[in-house]
Amino acid sequence: MSSRESLPVPFFDWRALWAERADAYSRILSDTAAMGGFILQGAVDAFEVGLEAYQGGGHAVGVSNGTDAMLLGLRTSGLRPGAEVILPAHGFIAAAQAIHFAGGRPVPVECSPEDGLISPEAVERAITPATGGIMVVHVNGRVGPMAEILEIAGRHRLPVFEDAAQALGARLYDRPAGRFGAWGAFSFYPSKTLGAFGDAGALVTDDEDLARRVRAMRNHGSGPDKTIPADCAEWGTNARIDNLQAAILAYKLGWYDDAIARRREIAARYHAAFAGLERLELPPSPEGEPGRFDIFQNYEVRCDRRDELRAHLLARGVGTIAQWGGVALHQFRGLGFDQHLPLADRWAARSLLLPMNHLLSDGQVDRTIGAVAEFFA
Ligand SMILES: *Cc1c(COP(=O)(O)O)cnc(C)c1O
Predict the structure, then answer these.
(1) To test ligand 1's pocket by mutation, which of 71, 136, 161, 163 has the most ligand atoms within 8 angstroms of CB?
(2) Is the pLDDT of residue 233 over 90?
(3) Ligand 1 centroid vs 27 CA: distance in angstroms?
(4) Would you give the distance in Å from CA 283 to the centre of its chain?
(5) How far is ligand 1, taken at its centre, from the CA of residue 129, in Å?
(6) What CATH fold (topology level) applies to the domain 256-376?
(7) Residue 346: its pLDDT value, please?
(8) Three-point CA angle 171, 25, 44, nearest 5°
(9) Of all atoms in ligand 1, which is nearest to the CA of residue 297?
(10) Beta-ladder partners of 161
(11) Which CATH number fits domain 20-253: 3.40.640.10, 3.40.50.1110, 1.10.260.40, 3.40.50.720?
């Protein structure tokens, strides 16, 4: 990672994440630590209240990471043992792992060839008497086709869960990611749009009882959050959010919208510059669809000769990655998946993430654009 970091345009500059506001971060960490605020102190409450305000309501529960947010969400959603949960093959393995460890069976399905999000038709086809829920993944910070999914779920009386790890602040029909289904899970892994300096996550829900249970479960099943468990009513675990991370996140939430605006500006520049490249398939433009607001956790392009493009960009000093290593969920045959999903296979083989984060300078964006254009010239 460190050698790639010294590229003129690193895919992600981990050190810049801290350097951006190093003084403020140092102050927050030392103030919080000096107060003895390490586990479930005021910073966690402040962050949760901030997240609820940002989401326009609901209940937010800070947890250890995005995967645990999904695991606790599923554990409190009445999933029957062995129940099938349908999810997109173009998604991170974490959602499937949470389903597995909640006692269910993940069933990956096809993605839409337009934007790589879960295909409602594929969901409908995968429903069986054993289906216990649908997990939508808002890949790249773009909300999935929720009207269609909620319609299907309603007809089959299935709960909908949201892996919103990439989508804090993304909206569809002016409703934010995480507030469509039973609950939404967010990740604050450092390279996420809202990144901590370590692991952190949150679950959001409109269901007060579910929030109360997740809150207890994250802390060994204890009712009152801040005491040693003396009243375990159900099985819990340690999935607490770190108080120091919460303090950082509460601060970062204050200017999160500016960071997203910068991402959308970069996406618009990429979109304008690449519009004429016939052999490069682009994500949907940031403008155009009323009520939709994509936050561009990633800028994911697709083309034939993906690996050649990647090598070309690296030679020009531009770092890229293939999302999830270029592997779709169902390709993990060792985990027992046996689905045949040609659209997801094709997507995984052709997709590439260009540099996309609010720390990129205009010069770095131009350099990336120039190198991509040169490849296709
Ligand atoms: C990052 C991510 C996760 C996992 O989040 P962690 O906080 O690392 O557990 C889950 N799903 C998606 C789509 C992600 O991008």
Answers:
(1) 163
(2) no
(3) 28
(4) 17
(5) 29
(6) Aspartate Aminotransferase, domain 1 (3.90.1150)
(7) 97
(8) 60
(9) 15
(10) 135, 183
(11) 3.40.640.10
